[in-house]
Structure of 4-hydroxy-tetrahydrodipicolinate reductase:
Amino acid sequence: MIKVIVAGFMGSMGQKTVEMIKQTDDFQLVAGLGPHAQEIDKSEYHLADDVQVFDQLNKVETDADVWVDFTLPNSAFENVKFAIEHGIHPVVGTSGMSDAHLTELTQLAAEKHVGGLIAPNFGLSAVLLMKFAQEAAKYFPDAEVIEMHHEDKLDAPSGTAISTAKMIAEAREQNPSASKTEATIDGARGGDVEGVPVHSVRLPGYVAHEQVLFGGSGEALTIRQDSFDRSSFMSGVKIAIPAVIKETSLMIGLENIL
Ligand SMILES: NC(=O)C1=CN([C@@H]2O[C@H](COP(=O)(O)OP(=O)(O)OC[C@H]3O[C@@H](n4cnc5c(N)ncnc54)[C@H](OP(=O)(O)O)[C@@H]3O)[C@@H](O)[C@H]2O)C=CC1
Ligand SMILES: O=C(O)C1=N[C@H](C(=O)O)C[C@H](O)C1
C-alpha cells in the first residue's frame, strides 16, 4: 500500500486526485494540505475521518510515501522542498515554478536520494504533442504556440506551453525567419519563450488545450491536443505515484517514466 498526501486537496486537481486514490487499491490517502483545512467538513471533500488535514506546511507530520502537489506556483517550491527533506517522494503538477527553483529541487533530491517527478502536463495527448512538436521543429523552424485554458487559471503562459516552446527552440536546426512585423498593440505577438512566440487564451468553457503552428514554404503543419476533462491528467498521476518510489532523483516530464 502506497501512502499519499495531497497538497491542494481542496482544489480542482486535488479533488480529482483524492477521487483517483480512493478508486485505486494500492494507494491510501493519509493526509491533505490546504489553507482553511481545519475549518472543513471532511466528507465534503471526500475524505475519510482518519485522513489527517493540515492548514500549514510547518504543521505537517505524516508517514506518507508520496507527496502529490497541485497548488500554486508560489507554494509548490516550499512544499516540494519540505517533502524531499522529509524523504517523501514528490509528484508535482503545479505549474509556473522558476528554472532556478527547479534546479535547486533537482540538486536537493539528488543529495537526499529521493526520487520524484515534476510534470508540466500529466495528460498523454500533451506529452505526445510535445514529442511531435520537437520532431517537427527539426524541419519547420518557424513555429508559434497557442494555449487555451479555463478562465480560473492563474498563470500564463501555461507550464505546458513554456515546455513546448523550449523543446522547439532546442530541437530546431535552423534559425526561424526574421520577422519584420512591428506590434502596434503591446502583446499582439504574444510572449517570447526562447524565440518562440507563445499566445495565451483564457475563456469559460475551455479546460486545457494547446496548438503548435508550424509554417513553411507554401505549407503549414498544425498539432493540437485537447483535455476536455481533468480526468485526462489522472492516468499520468496514477503511473507516477508507484514509479517515483523506485527512483533516486527528480525527473522533469512524464515522458521519463512512460
Ligand atoms: N501538470 C498537470 O497535468 C496539471 C497541472 N495543473 C496545475 O495544477 C495547479 C492547481 O490547479 P487547480 O487544481 O486547477 O487549481 P485550484 O486553484 O483549483 O487549486 C489549488 C489549491 O491549492 C490550494 N493552495 C494554495 N496554497 C497552498 C499551499 N501552500 N499548500 C497547499 N495548498 C495550497 C488552494 O487553496 P485556496 O483556493 O484557498 O488558495 C487550492 O485549493 C496549477 O498550477 C495548474 O496549472 C492543473 C492541471 C493539470
Ligand atoms: O491550470 C491548468 O488547468 C493546467 N495547467 C497545466 C499547465 O500550466 O500547463 C497543465 C494543463 O495545461 C492544465
